Amino acid sequence: MKTYLVTGGAGFIGSNFVLYMLKKYQDIRIVNVDVLTYAGNLENLKDIEGDERHIFSQTDIRDKDAITRLFAEYDPDYVVNFAAESHVDRSIANPEVFADTNVMGTVTLLNAARAAWQQEDGSWTPGKKYLQVSTDEVYGTLSLDKLDEFFREDTPLSPHSPYSASKAAADMFVSAYGDTYGMPINITRCSNNYGPYQFPEKLIPLMINNALAHKELPVYGDGLNVRDWLYVEDHCKAIDMVLAKGKLGEVYNVGGHNERANMFIVKTIIAEASKAVNDPAITEDLIRHVTDRAGHDRRYGIAPDKIKADLGWYPETKFEDGIVRTIEWYLQHKEWMEHVTSGAYRAYYDTMYSAKEVLD
After folding, report:
1. What is the tally of structural domains in the chain?
2. Helix axes 105-117, 162-181, angle to 10 degrees
């Protein structure tokens, strides 16, 4: 039985990955490590309550002793590091937290994996792999005037926010451990994810929630910033394939071929949400333009040619289908959203964040 140590497995992408893997494979176990900051939500994992293949540990990835104990107890075959502070606005307000968690947390995991997997002669235990889940934001920005240009794996890193800088630094540490020690590693860099269980500080769930409540829909600047949107299940499939077949040491870009301007996203949500609940009050009159974010990248666009050619992965979900599926999920899980927006999803609350702070 293969063991996966998944960090950040109570967050948006991490919990979707845990659910996907346990549904697909019967003969695995997952050690789910999450410190449960504001974005960690154990309600995301209700569907696997009682599943003995899922072991949850409320642990900070920066806690060297605790991480070392988990390696010793469970001897993981794979480490998949989703754990990260990920909201750009928060990184602008408090960059130190991002540097600490995203960089030093990654180094702690790398050191624990090296201590557990590397033999005295410098060789590595066969079958082990460390996978760093990163972001296209490490590449910086693309021009709206050159739509034939895309981020590729050899695009120089040029992060523009404290968040993306912390992720780029973490990527460089992972790559350096591969080069210096021969650690079996991969890095994946994905475009913007959307789908079930996404914390409603992010664009799509925030707009869905506000639209259904007839609240203002805040749009940064002119709303023409372009992002490449990837349905979260397609991302989970890509990570699974990289773990199984990815060439050691390689970076793989994971993109959706779904580039859309933010304003297009918001207007699509208005139209689809209004239709889904038959509510004529959900209109574009709810849109409010707000002061643009500092250092706001203009366009992201990923070329996933390498992962397609090497591993056969491709994004299966068209945005037009995925956004409808996402809206339907939130409509069917109103209690989940209510628990998040009220803070009730946290039976105990001992971190520096609060749901009210995010959503007010």
Report:
1. 1
2. 20
- pTM for the whole thing? 0.94
DSSP-derived 3-state class of residue 117: helix
**Catalytic (active-site) positions:** 136-137, 163
What is the Cα–Cα distance from 304 to 315, expressed in whole angstroms?
A: 9
How far out from the chain centre does Cα 206 lie?
A: 16
Q: Which domain holds residue 171?
A: 2-264+272-281+283-290+298-359
* Angle of helix 334-342 versus helix 203-212 axis, rounded to 10: 100
Could you tell me the two tokens for 1?
A: 């039985």
Q: Could you tell me what percentage of the chain is helix, strand and coil, using 3-state DSSP and rounding each to the nearest 5?
A: 45, 15, 40
CATH of the domain at 90: 3.40.50.720
Cα 287 to Cα 269: distance, rounded to the nearest angstrom: 11
Amino acid at the residue 96: E
- Residue 264, both tokens: 């297009």
pLDDT tens per residue across span 50-102: 999 999 999 999 999 999 999 999 999 999 999 999 889 899 999 999 999 99
CA angle 246, 74, 172 (to 5 degrees): 40
- With tokens 């390498």, the residue in question is 306
